[in-house]
Structures are given as C-alpha cells and as structure tokens.
Design goal:
globular, mainly alpha, 9 helices
Length: 272
C-alpha cells in the first residue's frame, strides 16, 4: 500500500516521512497501525516530482465508511480510541509532535482553520461566521496534553474479519497532535449530527458509555462538537473552491446541526 502526498488540497502538504516515524513509534507502543515498509522522498514519475510517499503493509479487513455500525464494531473502535488517548506518549518517544501553546489546543486550531478559510476566500460565508460567533466566548476546560488522532472516523479504521471484530489498523495520522482527546469525540459527534454515522441503537449505547467514561462535562463535549462542526464546515467551504461544489447547497447542510447545537436543549452525544 502506497501513501502519496497530495498535490494540492484543503490542508497544507504534510510530512510523510514524519508520519512514518510516528507510525513506527505507535506500532512499538502497541497501537494497531500498518507496518512501515519504506519511505521515499521523491517518486520516479516526472509528474510526481517532489512528492513524498510511504509504503505500508497491506492490512486485511473491512472499513465501515458506509453501512450499518453494530455494537461489536463500535466497541472495538472505542477501545482502540481510548488506547490512543491514554498512551504515555512521552514513554513512547513521541516527542516530534508539538505541545499545545499556552492559549490551548482549541485556540491554536481555530487560528489554523481561519488561515485556511482566508486562503480560499470563504472566511465571510454566513454559515461560517455563525459558527465563529458561537465559538468566540467558549473554551473547553484545561486538560493535560494527550495524543489525539485528529481525523477519527470509521473510514480510517480497518476492522479484522474476526468475530467479534478487533481493530486491525488505524490509518491517516497526518493530523495527529498533542491536545484534548475530546476533540476526537467532538468530531464523531459532529459527524453524527451531519447524518454521516449509521449507528445501531446498541452501538449508540456503546459510544455514549465510552465517551462518558472520560469523565468530562457536557459543556466540554458541546464545545468540541461545535468546534469540529466549524472545522468540517471550513473544509467543505474550501472544497467548493477546489472542486466547484454548489456553495449554497453545502452551506445549507450545516443549518439544522448548528440550530440543534445552539438551541437551549441542544442534545449532544450518542444517545438513541
């Protein structure tokens, strides 16, 4: 399996050799990731000159990017996510990831999102501004920095063919950072609000119990869900520029999830 640095996208070009180093450290620490077979700074094809790549082992299994997610799959996923978040990253030698600034990981990431919005000229979109205003006076509670995947979704997890399944590999670590693990849970909650997770009722119970075990407040989860909805909206707004998507149609899909989050009784989490 070859992973190639994209030519141009919504994120800055990422350092694949650095990702390879991280994968090797994670694998030694017992986190299920593909084995790195090689790293190349340049590809031979002229059209790909200057683009980095890494070669990874092929991992057998299934990816639940579409389809129903049952309780056993959700349980395997949540157990692995907890293992990532509670990894002693210092003991694992993961010192290549920067520590959050004194302003905190949330503020740092919001600044990065604003830079992306401005670079694509979509920072004044009404649905973007609405989310910005909602975040302006909110902040999660301070937490010790923990390892955060940054792009958690069932599409980045390979489940083994066993019964019950286990996580055979977690993929796509280019957004990994040290920060607040509830950021990952906020991403999952935002995806659920957008209708991108097809969870069975039993899977929802598993997800809710796993998230609650972190012992964090509803306010913190609410913040990170709103934050990740903003991040998601910034990505799709940039894609309207890159791919010519219908901007009004994309903007409309955030109206109802934002209404739910900002309402007085806005429910969050994964309760059925």
């Amino acid at each position: 399996m070859v992973r190639i640095e994209p030519q141009h996208g919504i994120l800055p070009p990422y350092d694949l050799p650095a990702e390879a180093r991280l994968l090797r450290q994670l694998r030694r620490a017992g986190i299920p990731v593909p084995q790195v077979l090689g790293v190349c700074a340049d590809l031979d094809l002229a059209s790909d000159s200057g683009r980095g790549c890494i070669t990874l082992e092929w991992v057998e299994g299934r990816v639940l990017i579409r389809g129903r997610i049952e309780a056993d799959a959700a349980r395997a996923y949540c157990e692995t996510l907890l293992a990532i978040h509670t990894l002693d990253w210092r003991a694992a030698g993961i010192d290549c990831l920067p520590l959050p600034s004194s302003a905190g990981p949330a503020v740092r990431e919001r600044e990065e999102i604003m830079t992306r919005l401005r670079s694509f000229g979509v920072d004044d979109a009404p649905h973007i501004l609405r989310l910005q205003r909602a975040l302006a006076d909110r902040a999660p509670s301070d937490q010790p920095p923990m390892l955060v995947h940054g792009d958690v979704n069932f599409g980045n997890v390979i489940l083994s063919p066993d019964s019950p399944p286990r996580v055979a590999a977690v993929l796509d670590w280019e957004q990994a950072h040290l920060g607040d693990p509830l950021s990952d849970w906020g991403r999952l909650a935002a995806e659920d609000l957008l209708g991108n997770l097809d969870l069975s009722a039993d899977a929802r119970v598993v997800m809710q119990d796993a998230q609650s075990a972190y012992g964090r407040s509803d306010d913190d989860l609410h913040y990170w869900t709103l934050h990740q909805l903003y991040k998601h909206a910034s990505a799709t707004a940039a894609l309207t520029v890159l791919r010519g998507w219908d901007f009004e149609q994309i903007a409309a899909m955030y109206a109802e999830p934002t209404d739910r989050l900002l309402s007085a009784d806005g429910a969050i989490g994964f309760c059925p």
